[in-house]
What we know:
Layout (H helix, E strand, L loop, with lengths): L9 E8 L2 E11 L10 E2 L9 E2 L8 E2 L19 E6 L12 E7 L12 E5 L10 E11 L5 E20 L6 E10 L2 H8 L1
Antiparallel strand pairs: 1-2, 1-5, 3-4, 6-7, 6-9, 7-8, 8-11, 9-10, 10-11
Amino acid sequence: VSRTGGLPDTVRIYHHAAGQLGRWVVRDEPLCIEEGQPRWREHPTGLRVDVAALPLGVLDGVELRSLDLGLADHDVVVFPSMAVSVVGFPRGLSAGAKLPIWKTGHLASEPDVDVDDLPCMYIDATTRGGMSGSPVLVRYLGPYPSRSGAVCFGNVTGFLGVYSSRLVVRDEEQGAPETVELGRVWKPRVISEILAG
Length: 197
């Protein structure tokens, strides 16, 4: 939250209040420590990967409801054109009570192949500012195709990665940038690699 219009120095987080569903505790997390040293942790490859982790400070009165990273080890077959959900806050909007909005898109690249030698994949989705950092999920309620080749029944949610941004391409003749409806999703292993570092 930068009131000067300069570089941001703080992130404001609305946490779940402990034991009070629908109530929120606001915490401001500084982005830097003394002398401008960043508190966040980047991927070992640096800025090529657009995901970072920020340690949380004071958590008294807060109930953490984190995404289980084990959901990356789901049993669902993932393939191009399948429906996925980006769960976030487009342009700061919420689904009421500061809960996220589920926007639907489709997987637009081969999930087992990295794009441009980076641990990411593309989705075709109408996303907006404010959704960077959103988890991307696949969800089936009922029958779903499993990795074993069988059709399974039940409710399953799989974590596919972290959404970061829409792609901007340049017209080679005009040189004008153009945003396309393709978004970059960083694969779950990126989070593990950041935390391990």
